[in-house]
TrEMBL record:
The keyword Ribonucleoprotein does not apply. Residues 19-48 are annotated as: Disordered. InterPro entries: Znf_C2H2_sf, Znf_C2H2_type. This is Gastrula zinc finger protein XlCGF26.1-like.
Amino acid sequence: MFVIGDLLETGQFIIKIEPGHSDEKQDASTKTRASKKKIKNKDPSPPKRKINIEIVVNKEETQARQKEMKEHQCNIQEILLNTNATPIRCHKGIGYTCCFCEDQYRDPAHLKKHTLEQHTQEDKANFMKGSRNTLHGYFVKLDITDLKCNICDENIDNVEAMIEHLKKIHNKNLFPKLNSHILPFKLSKDTLRCCVCLNIFNTFKALQEHMNVHYRNYICTVCDAGFVNKHILSRHEECHKIGVFTCGECSRTFDTARKKTLHQRTKHAEPKLRNKCGYCSERFKEFAQKLEHLVKVHGIVKPTIDCQVCNKSFKTKHEWRVHTARIHLMQKDHNCTLCEMRFYTKHELENHMTKHTGLRQFRCDVCFKSYGRKSTLRDHMRIHADDRRFECTMCGQAFVQKCTWRSHMRSKHGEDI
């Protein structure tokens, strides 16, 4: 018997549809009886036609896929039984979820401890077993933090080396030549870092998606992107399908189905509170609102990304990238045509150009002074509001402008800030 998942994944089947023949030659006596009854049928239904469907399956290909799937299962079971590596189901609610029960932990180290101490060897031997598991969607998220062999206590850096070690040194039944469907993670409470290329991420979801870069088992023929299994590739390929996709609500057309779906979700669908707090079950429309709630209500601070050069911390990867490019890489691609100054963003260049043009388009509604930059007008408005936000910690004197506060600290207290 073949599992339907295996049939779909091989692509080695043919469906033949052959029209049957209607019974044109009816029994004469039947026709006579029908005519005698004089049944009036204004809309006679067409004669039924038989359709013969034949599915031709490449059995050898399917059996090879099933054999490969069993070898993948054998690999992960031997790793779980003979090392301290632990599987991760997902990251949701309050944190990382156990593969063997419903427990969740904010600190991945606590999940690892729970899995090793609370779940038996029998649980690990039965991990990922079952007829519904096919290679089409198979992959395992594995925590290999401080990975070591349980048999000889040797520390080993990665999954591939561990498979070789267990097979050669301890004669375990493993298959090192398979394209790996195991995504390895070395996790800490404060930093999410790829254990292959050491890139930093601020969500586990982003890190997991990134791991496809290193496990290119299935390749997109359009953009050459790689994916760990065929299911993720199939979902990705939807973004390349071009056509005319019309919104049923407003008749707008889009060139991809994904754009149409996004449009319908944002413009026509009722607001769905998709972001659920794992601590109190309150829901939020935006992910950023959920993060703010976690900080204010539950005291949960999202992992920050630390700059490896100057040790500054950033809340998002975007902020970290901008900082790195601007400060450390000195990427200034926007050049002033009137002088030699260069800038990181187009907005900074536009602000600079007011020095050359003398244009003052931002006017104060109180004293009618004009300024070339909106930020300068905003700073000026604090004078009228008596907003003295810059306070000297030594004498208590407060100032409206930061430059005035700095001058005070330098001249009165000898502090060069």
